[in-house]
Amino acid sequence: MLQQIVSHTPTYVWIILGFLVVRGVAASRDRVVSRRSLFIMPAVMLALGVTGVAGRFDGGGMLAATWLAAMAAGAALAWRWSGDQVAGVDRAAGSVHLRGSWTPLALMMTVFAGKYAVGVALGLQPALAHNTGFALAACALFGLCNGVFNGRLLRCIAAWHTFAAPVARAA
Predict the structure, then answer these.
(1) Strand locations in 17-166, DSSP E?
(2) Distance CA 72, CA 54 (A)
(3) Domain boundaries, the chain
(4) Whole-structure pTM value
(5) Interacting residues of 53 by C-beta distance below 8 A, sequence separation 6+
(6) Cα–Cα dist 76/80, whole Å
(7) Sign of dihedral through CA atoms 23, 26, 27, 33?
(8) 60 phi and psi, to 5 degrees?
(9) How far apart are CA 144 and CA 103, in angstroms?
């Protein structure tokens, strides 16, 4: 059965997996990124997370509330534990020096595996779309991961505004 699932997976899914692995491995090393590029992976992962649950489940407001609550929890966790991810800021160049971390890869693989598992589960058992517990678990997982990505992004934005702020010189 596993072989059938994998063989019936569209090619673009494996391309997305490859892209995420490459980005995750790159994030494991110290690197300098443009301020603008800080938003790319959180946006991509947000899109993957939202498409993992949007329109797939019954539950409307309760599922949205679960997703938002999990996202807030993930952002709070990331805010607390990712304070040292920014090593420096170069405002003139519009860049941020980030310390390497395996966290982005772990998060990307969690969202990918979750989205894949939800898709397979719904393909094998369409009635799960009406199962509140299944839907709540999916919303909580994607919300938590998206929250961590966005909490890390917020840390970078905060560092941009406070790290290496210009020092006023006396005349």
Answers:
(1) 31-34, 86-90, 95-98
(2) 18
(3) 2-162
(4) 0.81
(5) 63, 67, 118, 135, 138, 139, 142
(6) 6
(7) negative
(8) 40, -110
(9) 13
Residue whose token pair is 């072989």: 3
Mind listing the pLDDT tens digit for each residue in 99-150?
A: 999 989 998 899 899 989 998 998 899 999 899 999 999 999 989 999 998 9
Taking only the tens place, the pLDDT of each residue in 61-98 is: 888 899 999 999 999 999 998 878 888 888 888 899 99
Residue 119 contacts by C-beta under 8 Å, 6 or more apart in sequence? 52
Altogether, the residues listed in the chain come to a count of: 171
For residues 150 and 67, the answer to whether their CB atoms sit within 8 Å is no
In one-letter notation, the amino acid at residue 159 is A
Give one DSSP letter per residue of 103-144, joined into a string: HHHHHHHHHHHHHHHHHHHHHH-GGGGG-HHHHHHHHHHHHH
- DSSP code of 151? H
Contacts of 122 (CB under 8 A, 6+ apart): 56, 128, 129
If we measure between CA atoms, which residue out of 162, 157, 135, 136 comes closest to residue 42? Answer: 157
Residue 129 token pair:
């779309």
Tokens of 149: 């990505």
- Half-sphere exposure for 8 (CA within 13 Å, toward CB): 10
Structure tokens at 4: 């059938």
